[in-house]
């Protein structure tokens, strides 16, 4: 029986006995322009295979392996394996291999097996018709009508139209939209509501796709559904899908998602208030940048910009203004420009490995090249240090032998980083340029005068220069020709930068300068938004004050080359997660009860309420910590008629308040971490108290803890719900590393104890332990700290090296404020702020740790006011940008304000100098332990060594103290510390040191003592030796008797 179809001249019998299809040379079965392969005609759920293998449908819909799922004994195993292997690389390529193998089949029943497979997958029979016809007529002008009918039946009308006219220009015009959507997908899918959008996207999605998205949302949630929706949109062949998507976002009031698609368009829905979400919802605001180039700061550390010989400078556009807003405009336009350029970075690489400056870097340096004092303000990651290197090069050429350059970094970690960069750069550029560096303890080993005389460039920490000026090694700043201050926004208050610049300004404004030439000043910063301000006028005043302190009349920002800047600097997208607090927590109740009992005990000893006026102090708050500090301060100078009673009361109150402090700390840890971490913190403290030989008061206090320890252990081992903030943090990390397993994260926290707690949490979490977290904290000063007691420079370097390495030793760095400024972590693409909020400058610095392309900066908090503060900082950042532009546009007014500030500050300094220094009394004073009020020594026995070390020349002191080996013995300015010195009550008094050949010299720190006037018996407390009002003799070797060799108590 035969049956013909006049429209197609195809008999029914041809369906069951088709000729083997043939292909013309070069003809493929996929249409790459629309990301639609033949295998994507149908889009079923991913089938499950034997041995646990699954086939993804995320890219093209139906996978080839899904057709090969039913039994097909005619296929050889190696053919199947080849198809599966190709599919892991490209579904389209796998489809080509599959169809080629179908054409080679000649076994009986192969076609029926294919039909059965297609029917099992739900594909209409017209697909088999399509496969049964000869492809030899496909000549570009006579497309296969059967394929068109099949595509029409499956609702691929756009592709049908393209095939009919063999014109794919319309489909090609949507390519940029697909690329844009692909880039923003990780953020986009978290902002949209698929179920709402489907009501508006019926014209660009198929009915079956809509049903599948709804099913996914019911089973897996909105994010999974959003990912499927985005995937369907990217494969849509409807010309207007992008316009329909934007219209749908507008109708559903999804402002943030819409702005991702249109970063340069102000939403007409600005009337919506950010932050109206219910507690627990995710609140997000985003900063947008779409770029393809990467900014490899490892390359920058090799003295230049990371370029290859084939790279050419990107086209720059002229802009009237600078700032983030200007940089981030024109997302789709830049996509087209990048497509035309084919990627790549800006600048050129010359012979010998030397790297030239980028154009925006030249723009920043131009005022400096003209010899002007300048504050260079540019985003983090743009290569301001590279600009500084170029400035040094140019300055050395212009000044010749008279050049003497100082580059200063505020932190030792940053000093090491920059010093290495300077050495490597000038070793390549000009090995004859002499470079040396001084920081920290190096200051007592090398004379600043010698270093200055024998080098062209000196890299310093600023305190080194302050000390050298005070000691007369640097008689005047006129010894230098150029000073570069990294992170110059710190030039305020008592910071070493401000001390240096005060000396500079005093010389400049003095009439006795005698024609001396002061050095050129260059400041580097990512933000000049210092101080407190509410509006643009106040911000301008603060900026002028900073510029006045730096004597810099020029603020250099990027105006012209903003497009080039944007192609290299990747500003992280900002997101906010507001998390619900724990509803009930038995741990908190138990700790509150213990604290109330301790307060009750303290009141039986003394009326502690009379010692401090701080009210409304809740347990587990910073205000309670302030109350403890205030009470302890008053206890130190508490005087009673009976000295023994005074000693007993003061020691008891100290113990009570110290225990209250630790319980308060534990509550804060419990709020941000696990109950387990808070309990371990408390347990460590209690054990330390017991090991120190605790007295009756301390035994009573530790008994409170021991009595509840069993219950607390039960709570910490899973007896209560986990912290919701940790759940959110875990979700964010899991999602980020699921999307990109090469992610490098920096997690900022407020305290060292919390850093340790989160590290333990990650290491004990099955889903997070692969991150191998590292901790980066400061060196620490308090010996009584139990956790996070500080890191040495070597340990910091080890943690950073592990994090920066490419062998994934560590994928996340948990850091305190030590890492928020200056330290380059170029691989970082995720910055997490865990209840970590500061001012505008801190916000800019922290956000800037995310250097990699596509970076995110996420704030996690259960406090809405904290999130609001960060959003307020973002608004302040815009105010600062406008203030900078206005000052640049009105240089005369800026200069006038600067002169007013400079002269006003000079008058204040002169008035302070005119006030006679209060003479130190010659009377005798007694030093009492500030904890137990026991006698330590008399001031007559104290000698001052090198204006900084206070040595007691009374060997009987050791009978009133105990010593322990120093955990970190080292020397400083000729003094080598060997042991720690403690009162019998446990308070840290200082160190035992050796000087030259003299051993066992007790060196005290004044903050551990109360000073009692032996005549008036008045007591005073001092935190610094420089603040004391009594005189002390200078240390002389003749003061040491030949028989000086005190026997330490534990020797």
Automatic annotation (TrEMBL):
Composition bias type Low complexity, residue spans: 1-14, 28-40
Keywords: Antiviral defense, ATP-binding, Cytoplasm, Helicase, Hydrolase, Immunity, Innate immunity, Isopeptide bond, Metal-binding, Nucleotide-binding, Phosphoprotein, Repeat, RNA-binding, Ubl conjugation, Zinc
Residue spans of biased composition, Basic and acidic residues class: 329-359
InterPro entries per the UniProt record, alphabetical: AAA+_ATPase, CARD_dom, CARD_RIG-I_r2, DEAD/DEAH_box_helicase_dom, DEATH-like_dom_sf, Helicase_ATP-bd, Helicase_C-like, P-loop_NTPase
Residue numbers spanned by region Disordered: 1-72, 292-359
Localization of this protein: Cytoplasm
Statement: the UniProt record of this protein carries the keyword Cell inner membrane: no
Entry's Gene Ontology BP terms: antiviral innate immune response; cytoplasmic pattern recognition receptor signaling pathway
Enzyme class: hydrolase
Chain ranges of the RLR CTR domain: 915-1042
Domain Helicase C-terminal: 725-895
PROSITE patterns the UniProt entry points to: HELICASE_ATP_BIND_1, HELICASE_CTER, RLR_CTR
GO molecular function: ATP binding; double-stranded RNA binding; hydrolase activity; RNA helicase activity; single-stranded RNA binding; zinc ion binding
GO cellular component: cytoplasm
SUPFAM superfamilies: P-loop containing nucleoside triphosphate hydrolases
Protein name: Activating signal cointegrator 1 complex subunit 3
């Amino acid at each position: 029986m035969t049956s013909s179809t006049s429209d197609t001249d195809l008999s029914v019998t041809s369906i069951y006995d088709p000729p083997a299809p043939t292909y013309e040379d070069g003809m493929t079965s996929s249409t790459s322009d629309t990301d639609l392969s033949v295998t994507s005609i149908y889009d079923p759920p991913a089938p499950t295979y034997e041995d646990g293998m699954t086939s993804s449908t995320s890219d093209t819909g139906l996978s080839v392996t899904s057709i090969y799922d039913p039994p097909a004994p005619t296929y050889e195993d190696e053919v199947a394996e080849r198809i599966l292997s190709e599919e892991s690389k490209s579904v389209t390529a796998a489809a080509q291999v599959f169809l080629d193998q179908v054409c080679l089949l000649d076994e009986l029943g192969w076609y029926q097996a294919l039909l059965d497979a297609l029917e099992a997958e739900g594909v209409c029979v017209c697909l088999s018709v399509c496969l049964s016809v000869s492809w030899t007529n496909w000549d570009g002008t006579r497309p296969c009508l059967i394929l068109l009918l099949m595509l029409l039946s499956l609702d691929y009308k756009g592709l049908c139209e393209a095939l009919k006219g063999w014109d794919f220009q319309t489909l090609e015009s949507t390519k940029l939209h697909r690329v844009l959507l692909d880039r923003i997908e990780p953020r986009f899918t978290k902002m949209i509501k698929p179920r709402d959008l489907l009501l508006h996207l019926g014209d660009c999605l198929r009915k079956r796709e809509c049903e599948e998205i709804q099913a996914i949302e019911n089973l897996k949630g909105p994010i999974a559904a959003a990912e499927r929706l985005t995937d369907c949109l990217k494969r849509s062949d409807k010309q207007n899908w992008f316009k329909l998507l934007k219209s749908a976002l507008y109708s559903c009031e999804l402002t943030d998602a819409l702005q991702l698609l249109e970063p340069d368009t102000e939403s007409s829905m600005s009337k919506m208030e950010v932050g109206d979400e219910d507690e627990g919802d995710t609140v997000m605001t985003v900063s947008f940048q779409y770029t393809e180039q990467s900014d490899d700061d490892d390359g920058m550390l090799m003295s230049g910009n990371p370029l290859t010989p084939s790279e050419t400078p990107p086209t720059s556009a002229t802009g009237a203004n600078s700032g983030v807003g200007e940089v981030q405009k024109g997302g789709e336009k830049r996509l087209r420009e990048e497509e035309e350029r084919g990627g790549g970075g800006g600048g050129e690489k010359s012979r010998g490995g030397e790297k030239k400056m980028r154009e925006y870097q030249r723009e920043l340096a131009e005022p400096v090249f003209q010899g002007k004092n300048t504050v260079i303000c540019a985003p983090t990651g743009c290569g301001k240090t590279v600009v500084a290197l170029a400035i040094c090069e140019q300055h050395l050429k212009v000044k010749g032998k008279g050049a003497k350059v100082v580059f200063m970094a505020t932190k030792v970690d940053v000093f090491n980083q920059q010093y290495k960069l300077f050495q490597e750069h000038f070793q390549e550029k000009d090995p004859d340029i002499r470079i040396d560096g001084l920081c920290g303890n190096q200051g007592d080993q090398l004379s600043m005068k010698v270093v200055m005389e024998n080098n062209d460039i000196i890299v310093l920490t600023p305190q080194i220069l302050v000390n050298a000026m005070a000691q007369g090694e640097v008689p005047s700043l006129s010894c230098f020709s150029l000073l570069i201050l990294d992170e110059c926004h710190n030039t305020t208050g008592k910071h070493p930068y401000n001390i240096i610049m005060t000396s500079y300004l005093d010389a400049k404004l003095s009439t006795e300068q005698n024609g001396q030439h002061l050095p050129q000043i260059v400041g580097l910063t990512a933000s000049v938004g210092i101080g407190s301000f509410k509006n643009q006028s106040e911000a301008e005043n603060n900026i002028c004050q900073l510029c006045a302190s730096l004597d810099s009349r020029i603020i250099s920002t990027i105006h012209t080359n903003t497009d080039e800047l944007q192609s290299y600097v990747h500003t992280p997208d900002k997101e906010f997660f507001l998390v619900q607090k724990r509803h009930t927590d038995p741990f908190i109740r138990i700790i509150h009860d213990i604290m109330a009992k301790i307060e009750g005990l303290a009141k039986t000893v003394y009326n502690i309420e009379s010692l401090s006026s701080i009210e409304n102090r809740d347990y587990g708050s910073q205000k309670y910590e302030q109350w403890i500090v205030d009470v302890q301060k008053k206890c130190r100078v508490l005087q009673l008629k009976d000295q023994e009673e005074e000693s007993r009361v003061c020691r008891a109150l100290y113990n009570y308040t110290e225990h209250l402090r630790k319980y308060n700390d534990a509550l804060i840890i419990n709020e941000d971490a696990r109950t387990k971490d808070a309990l371990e913190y408390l347990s460590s403290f209690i054990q330390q108290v017991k090991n120190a030989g605790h007295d009756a008061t301390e035994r009573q206090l530790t008994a409170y803890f021991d009595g509840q320890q069993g219950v607390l252990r039960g709570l910490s081992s899973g007896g209560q719900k986990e912290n919701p903030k940790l759940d959110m943090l875990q979700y964010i990390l899991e999602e980020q590393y699921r999307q990109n397993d090469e992610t490098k994260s920096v997690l900022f926290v407020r305290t060292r104890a919390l850093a340790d707690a989160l590290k333990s949490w990650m290491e004990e979490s099955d889903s997070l332990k692969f991150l191998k977290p590292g901790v980066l904290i400061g060196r620490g000063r308090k010996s009584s700290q139990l956790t996070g007691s500080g890191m040495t420079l070597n340990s910091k370097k080890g943690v950073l090296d592990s994090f920066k390495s490419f062998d994934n030793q560590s994928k996340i760095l948990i850091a305190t404020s030590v890492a928020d400024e200056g330290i380059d972590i170029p691989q970082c693409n995720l910055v997490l702020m865990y209840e970590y909020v500061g001012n505008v400058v801190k916000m800019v610095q922290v956000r800037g740790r995310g250097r990699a392309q596509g970076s995110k900066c996420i704030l996690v908090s259960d406090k809405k006011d904290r999130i609001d503060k960060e959003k307020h900082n973002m608004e302040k950042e815009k105010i600062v940008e406008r203030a900078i532009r206005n000052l640049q546009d009105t240089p005369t007014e800026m200069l006038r304000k600067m002169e007013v500030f400079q002269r006003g500050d000079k008058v204040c300094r002169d008035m302070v100098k005119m006030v006679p220094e209060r003479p130190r009394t010659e009377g005798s004073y007694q030093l009492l332990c500030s904890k137990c009020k026991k006698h330590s020594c008399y001031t007559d026995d104290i000698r001052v060594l090198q204006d900084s070390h206070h040595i007691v020349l009374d060997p009987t002191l050791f009978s009133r103290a105990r010593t322990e080996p120093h955990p970190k013995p080292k020397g400083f300015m000729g003094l080598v510390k060997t042991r720690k010195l403690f009162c019998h009550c446990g308070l840290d008094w200082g160190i035992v040191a050796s000087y030259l050949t003299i051993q066992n010299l007790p060196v005290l720190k004044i903050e551990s003592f109360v000073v009692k006037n032996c005549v008036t018996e008045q007591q005073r407390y001092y935190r610094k030796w420089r603040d004391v009002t009594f005189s002390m003799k200078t240390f002389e070797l003749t003061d040491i008797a030949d028989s000086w060799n005190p026997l330490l108590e534990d020797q």
